Amino acid sequence: MSAEPDGPEDRLRRFATIWSRAVFPVTSTSSTRPEFEELLLPLARQLSGALRARSFDAEAGRTVGAALVEAHCTDPEALSRTLDCVDAYLVLYCGEDGDREDLRARSGRLQHAMAAGFAQALRMRTLAEQETVARAALEAQGVVAQALHATEARFRAVFEGAAIGIGIADLEGNVLQVNGALRRMFGLSEQSMRGRNVKEWVHPDDAPQTWRLYDELVLGEREHYHLEKAFYRPDGTVLWTNLTVSLLRDADGDPQYQLALMEDTTERRLLNLRLRYEATHDALTGLPNRTFFFERLEKALGAGEGQRFGLCYLDLDGFKTVNDSLGHAAGDRLLVEVADRLQACATASTEMVARLGGDEFVALTTGPDTERTVDELAARIMNALLAPISVDGRELTVRGSIGIVEGPAGERSAAEVLRSADITMYRAKSAGGNRFELADPESDARAITRHGLTTALPTALDRGEFFIEYQPLVHLGDGSVRGAEALVRWLHPQHGVLSPDRFIPLAEHTGLIVPLGRWVLEQSVLQARAWRDLHGGAEALGPLRINVNLSPCQLTHPGLVQDTVEILERTGMSPDALCLEVTESALIGADDDLLKPLRRLAEMGVDIALDDFGTGYSNLANLRRLPVSVLKLDRSFTQSMQRFPADPVDLKIVEGIVSLAHSLDLAVTVEGVETGAQAEQLRILGCDTAQGWYYARPGPPDRLHDLALVDATG
């Protein structure tokens, strides 16, 4: 079945047509251009398949590069035109509906693979030619003495027709013969080259062993050597070659001539340098990228004794706002300007600046005195960001947070250094930004521990690592146990039992607080049901109320009311057996939408307690609009009552709060009761219930049942 007029096959053939028109003029072939196009069509199909394959395979690119050499496209211009054609048209004609950015990246990697395959195939072909030419040269030199003209003619044909440069010199280095390929490589006539001496072609980039190997060869101590060597052309440009020099001996085995075979690798070298640059530099800013930076950092960390390093890790403050408000194009222009300023800060040869990605940059300094130079480098960076940056007619103020790590080489890996710098940078950002901080091992350890806990949280609930302890709520009037507050704990496999202040903030930050809070609520209500079943017919005990804390994240979760109702119905507990504690700070300035779920729960009969009352500086008049039935006084109000005599000011404050609460039909619970005198004073002041170590520490549920049973039976 034929393809549609503009189907994939048609687009593929158009790409092959463009490719053949570009490359055919520089190809040594007897084929016509249409025949050459048919030769390129399957190669184009291989490139198209590799471009759109599910997983990228560079082998297709290497195969196509090798096939070009097989098709006699050995001129460096043929490779250059091929890469230009693939870069400009492969994605356009063969990309179809794929992700353009991903396809462009794949196209670049295919070009790299094609260049590698081309170079390898050309090398293998050259080596084969070298062997043929060497054999021919040996035969030719041997038959010169025998005057065998037929062999001489054959040698001349190979000598002049070879695609690689060939030159013959005597043992003093005087050039005797050169072929056309070598003359074209140097841009010199045969007469100009014949008068030269090999030793004139010294280049500053010569490898240290270059001329030692040459001396050994002309002395007859070695038969050949191979290396990469640069030569100057008459116009001052540099010719890079793969050079093989062999020793030619006479019939008696004595050294007589030297034979040089040269492959022009200039274009390939420039291509490799370009690809290397693109692989190690940021496309937007031109700064070294993460790959290049890690190479330099690892080199600095592997320096010898007495060497040190200093690293500044910079993150721009508020860069997301620029992207969100002005667009990514404006954000990119801002990053380019910042990169230019940072580059100007690297004033010494031992300093470098790189972009890790996004708005994150790093500056590295090395040497024996980085304790001083890294501080100076950080100060230069901060000063460089002071002047506003103009973007689209707007003057933008740019600030940054910097984390500094400095120390001796050889003690830490590159990953450890960068992690410490990252942690320190975020410490500077959390302190307000626009500043730099020095790395601190203790702070790093705490941050690493927090990160470890954060990553372990999602599976800890599934593994059953959380458990609940209960602290009794005691009536101050008769000393009876009226209920308990549920306090969640984490039995961590490495860190042991963790209190809520170690993991609740992390759970709130990750959003895990919602499923964790739901689990605590369900387990607590189930425990209350178990207590009720254990009490049986002992009516004197009355219902034990369970208090459960709610975080601000849970308050805003749409499933709060439904989850609470379902748990109460499933366990068969009445709403008045549950009290939900909400911190005062979470309700300061709360609007009706936030209060609506609490009002619904309060209307059902669930008690709402205002926890940590007195720490949020709320207006006491706001209590009238909040759906609360209990005030829990913060322990800071009652700590002075542990001393005798109690602070009269604190007594007046507590007395006033209790009086106001009772006038609003609110019960008052006090936390942190630790002495009998404190409990008696609070009873006199009119507080209703209390909890604290004076009565019992948080513990397992059976302990609370025993306390309640003792109170009920006298």
Task: Walk me through this protein's architecture.
The protein is of the alpha/beta class. Helices cover 50% and strands 20% of the residues. It is built from 25 helices and 21 strands. It has an eight-stranded mixed β-barrel with strand order 13-14-16-17-18-19-20-21, surrounded by four helices. A five-stranded antiparallel beta sheet has the order 2-1-5-4-3, sandwiched between helices. A five-stranded mixed beta sheet has the order 7-8-6-11-12, with helices on both faces. Helix 2 (33-52) packs antiparallel against helix 3. The longest helix is centred in the first third of the chain and has 47 residues, at 100-146. The model is unreliable at 1-5 and 537-541 (pLDDT under 50).
Secondary-structure map:
Elements: H1 8-23, H2 33-52, H3 59-70, H4 76-94, H5 100-146, H6 149-161, E1 165-170, E2 175-178, H7 180-186, H8 190-194, H9 210-218, E3 224-232, E4 238-249, E5 255-264, H10 266-280, H11 290-301, E6 308-317, H12 319-326, H13 328-345, E7 351-357, E8 360-367, H14 370-384, E9 389-391, E10 394-396, E11 399-408, H15 414-430, E12 435-438, H16 441-460, E13 466-475, E14 481-492, E15 496-498, H17 500-510, H18 513-535, E16 545-550, H19 552-555, H20 560-571, E17 578-583, H21 584-587, H22 592-604, E18 607-613, E19 630-633, H23 648-663, E20 667-670, H24 676-684, E21 689-690, H25 701-713
Parallel strand pairs: 11-12, 14-16, 16-17, 17-18, 18-19, 19-20, 20-21
Antiparallel strand pairs: 1-2, 1-5, 3-4, 4-5, 6-8, 6-11, 7-8, 9-10, 13-14, 13-21, 14-15
Helix pairs in contact: 1-2, 1-4, 2-3, 2-5, 3-5, 4-5, 5-6, 12-13, 13-14, 16-17, 18-20
